[in-house]
């Protein structure tokens, strides 16, 4: 493992002082010795996507040793900031929190050198119930058996904030025999499939394969939230989120769209990454988009309309150059670059 100075010096040496037009040939002739991607736990979505990304990038950097490290949304931000990884996968709301010195960062050490490369997946706050359930609103969760992950996790905190926006607390869930069960992702969905839980809430990528697996047992449905609740959530605790609508038919019991809030999962790099190298990474993934989408079903929504937008943090100049050349729209960041 190279340290941050050595790693960035290797990248800079590999791509310095040549025009973007020369980048494809340069990448093959002077590729960096090492490239580290911050992914996620083995078998998880981030890990699978990181490994697939490494395979695609190895075609343009065949002599480069590409290492995909376990990590996660928060740890990847810290590793790229500190030069321990070159690329990382994270969520836009986590990137904003870290930029402003909130968890996973600290006020004394924010992550303000993260730069967006691609918007690759979408997440949303989702509460899944049996398609035939009489649960239609947050208020209907009173007295029910519910899981929202474990205390302190992103999904648990998001659930508390969503309840607060509706004038509720977790105590309301546990009234009249209800209980909020602190279960893992797999435990929660197994219990939902088995009928031991009435509802599972998660800030999750969509449509997640685990939820689709639940449908082999029974049709699922995601709750739709009132605009007033979503507006209050956005006002009080929705930094990095935006309103989204999960389409009718997404799940077997989903006969109407589900209005909720969500955030994007993004590929990012450090601001110190040379522009030409960032350009080459985005170019290679975009030009092999069918192969990239085939890595995981959750990558299937990448399009010209989404790939350059919604990253919250500033885009890397190398990515901007590529998108401008391709006529792909990008969104500006309100954060200082």
Concise structural overview:
With 337 residues, this protein is an alpha/beta fold.
**Tertiary shape:** globular
Output the number of helix runs: 13
Summed up, the domain count is 2
The run of helices and strands is HHEHEHEHEEHHEHEHEHEEHHH
Termini separation comes to: 28 Å
Low-confidence stretches: 1-6, 12-29
Find the count of extended strands (DSSP E, 2+ residues).
10
Gyration radius over CA: 21 Å
Instruction: Classify the helix fraction into a percent range.
Output: 25-40%
Structural class: alpha/beta
Which range does the strand content fall in? 15-25%
CATH superfamily of the largest domain: Periplasmic binding protein-like II
Per CATH, what is the topology of the largest domain?
D-Maltodextrin-Binding Protein, domain 2
CATH class (first level) name of the largest domain? Alpha Beta
Architecture of the largest domain in CATH?
Answer: 3-Layer(aba) Sandwich
Q: Specify the biggest β-sheet.
A: 10 strands, mixed
Query: How confident overall, as mean pLDDT?
Result: 89
Signal peptide: 1-29
InterPro entries: TAT_signal, TRAP_TAXI
Organism: Antarctobacter heliothermus
Keywords: Signal
């Amino acid at each position: 493992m190279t340290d941050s100075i050595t790693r960035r010096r290797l990248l800079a040496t590999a791509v310095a002082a040549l025009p973007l037009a020369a980048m494809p040939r340069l990448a093959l002739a002077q590729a960096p010795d090492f490239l580290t991607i911050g992914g996620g736990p083995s078998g998880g979505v981030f890990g699978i996507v990181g490994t697939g990304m490494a395979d695609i990038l190895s075609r343009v950097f065949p002599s480069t040793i590409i290492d995909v490290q376990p990590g996660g949304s928060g740890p990847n931000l810290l590793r790229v900031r500190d030069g321990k990884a070159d690329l990382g996968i994270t969520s836009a709301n986590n990137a904003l929190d870290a930029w402003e010195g909130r968890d996973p960062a600290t006020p004394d050490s924010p992550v303000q050198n993260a730069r967006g490369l691609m918007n690759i997946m979408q997440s949303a706050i989702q509460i899944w119930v049996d398609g035939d359930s009489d649960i239609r609103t947050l208020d209907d969760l009173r007295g029910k058996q519910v899981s929202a992950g474990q205390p302190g996790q992103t999904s648990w905190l998001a659930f508390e904030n969503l309840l607060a926006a509706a004038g509720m607390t977790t105590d309301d869930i546990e009234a009249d025999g209800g209980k909020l069960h602190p279960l893992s992702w797999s435990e929660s969905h197994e219990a939902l499939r088995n009928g031991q839980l009435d509802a599972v809430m998660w800030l999750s990528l969509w449509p997640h394969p685990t939820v689709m697996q639940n449908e082999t047992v029974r049709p699922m449905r995601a709750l739709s939230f009132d605009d007033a609740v979503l507006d209050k959530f956005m006002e009080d605790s929705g930094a990095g989120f935006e309103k989204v609508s999960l389409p009718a038919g997404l799940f077997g019991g989903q006969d109407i769209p589900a209005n909720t809030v969500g955030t994007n999962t993004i590929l990012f790099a450090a601001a110190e990454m040379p522009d030409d190298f960032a350009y080459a990474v985005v170019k290679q993934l975009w030009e092999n988009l069918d192969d990239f989408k085939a890595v995981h079903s959750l990558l299937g929504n990448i399009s010209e309309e989404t790939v350059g937008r919604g990253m919250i943090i500033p885009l890397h100049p190398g990515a901007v150059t590529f998108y401008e050349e391709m006529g792909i729209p990008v969104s500006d960041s309100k954060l200082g670059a």
